[in-house]
Amino acid sequence: MTEHNTVAIVRSPAARSFFDPIAEGLAGAGCEVTEFETLDALIAEPEAASRCAVLVTPGALVVDARVLDALPRLRGLVSPFIGIEGFDVGAATRRGVLVANGSTWQNVESMAEATVLLMLAALYDLDDARDQLAAGWRRPGGMRSRMLKGRTVGVIGYGRIGQAVAARIAPWEVSLLVSTPRLKVPLPAGAEHVDLEALLSRSDIVLVLASLNAETRGLLGQAELDRMKQDAVLVVTSRGGIVDEAALAAMLRRRPEVRAALDVFATEPLAEDSPLRDLPSAILTPHGIGHTRESIASLAPAAIAAVLDLVAGRPPEIVCNPDVLDTWPAG
User: Are 306 and 76 in contact (CB under 8 A)?
Assistant: First the structure.
């Protein structure tokens, strides 16, 4: 483990302590670990940059061609978290750099459960029910709650979380529509692979579960949102930036029968003056609805295992760019 055991860690300012067990675990396993506050600080150290074999950093940080070219011996790029929207995966693949993330089963299934939770909370108008109790046990003039059973659910993006959500809502006898540019796994029986326009116009519930990248940034603007049914439910738990938040807020003001539940936003924390905050039909949570004890506990061990695989010349369990494996140096 001597030739490829040099590991650089660039911490996130918002999660500094999270990286401590990763650094300690790698050092204890015999890796040569150096830590930096920023990617530019790493690049500015010629010896560290030239020897770095594996880079561990949050996937929200921008690791593009400039950064990759400054790390000539890099063989692996690891985000301990699921999101890798800051990584230029194409540039990494072209340079023979394997990309891994924290898509552990605990993380995937926690996010799937949380997505179902928000969907049901929106359908059953949970916030309004709590307000009724706080206001003195008043009863609404008409029933706003709706059942999930028999509805048409559209899933935008069909990675591991999308697949886990589909498995969990199947007992509700829903009709499943999936929109994704590259369908890599078979769909459940009865599900349809459709284009985005068809999904938006036919779905009672729209779940945004796609990764944030150049193809999906701004995917749902005013025109797309206006295609949704008059009483649709929109749930966004993958990444902010896919939905135009200003257009969504305007649509929710025009169409109060539409409901939305968002856990992620284009800019986080969500601005205090965001128009989404004042909308009674919107459930907002601070990018943490799917963060469970189990999911958080799984991330550091998974990151350590991925790095140790990489320095040993083995592909880790979770590979985000499998196309690189044909040329990736093993050994």
Answer: yes
Interior angle at CA 43, CA 20 and CA 85, nearest 5: 65
Q: Give residue-wise pLDDT tens across range 102-127.
A: 999 999 999 999 999 999 999 999 99
Q: State the Cα–Cα distance between residues 165 and 235, nearest whole angstrom.
A: 12
93 phi/psi in degrees, rounded to 5: -60, -45
Measured from the Cβ of residue 192, the count of other Cβ atoms closer than 10 Å reads 15
**Residue 202 class from Cβ within 10 Å (0-12 exposed, 13-18 middle, 19+ buried)?**
middle
Among candidates 165, 265, 173, which has minimal Cα distance to 209? 165
Could you report the per-residue pLDDT of 257-276, keeping only the tens digit for each? 999 999 999 999 999 999 99
User: Residue 2's pLDDT band (boundaries 50, 70, 90)?
Assistant: low
Catalytic residues: 239, 268, 287
Domains and CATH numbers, the chain: 6-101+293-326 (3.40.50.720), 105-284 (3.40.50.720)
Q: CB–CB of 42/36 below 8 Å? A: yes
Using 50, 70 and 90 to split pLDDT, how confident is the model at 330?
low
